Amino acid sequence: MNTIIIYATKHGTTEKCAYMLSKKLNGRVDLHNIKSGKDPILDRYDKVIIGGSIYIGNIQKQIKKFCFKRLKELKRKKVGLFICGMQQGTIMEAEFVAAFPPELLANSIAKESFGGEFIFKKMNPIERLIVTKTLKVYKDTSNISEESINRFAQIINNSQ
């Protein structure tokens, strides 16, 4: 079975998580950064995984646009959805619901938050200011969950 992981990343965390996930999946796995400007050809894939990072409560517009534009096609595939972000609990759940079309959420076989990172050297001055003043985080922080990535991979691998 062929799988594609379609993602958007701002500072590289989502790309890192997509790569980690790709190494845990069975069969052929292709990675596609949607920000490359090219729409992937989904006919080649049995499984489609879509992920992006959450900034100020929203996923990248390229991910949202792709999901809505290709919704009919995606509904005929086995789809997994993931987000990367620093929020947890009900806030993370609300961000997840806001990130993807309801029909796609309802039809997906796997949904997971992989956690996120604050890497200060990758942030612009405004982002650093927001993180330090509102979240009281002053140094590089990572809460990427390999357990979540493993759980997601297992669901995808077990789907036929």
Automatic annotation (TrEMBL):
Flavodoxin domain sequence ranges: 4-142
| The organism's place on the tree of life at top rank | Bacteria
Q: Which organism is it from?
A: Clostridium formicaceticum
Protein name per the record: Flavodoxin
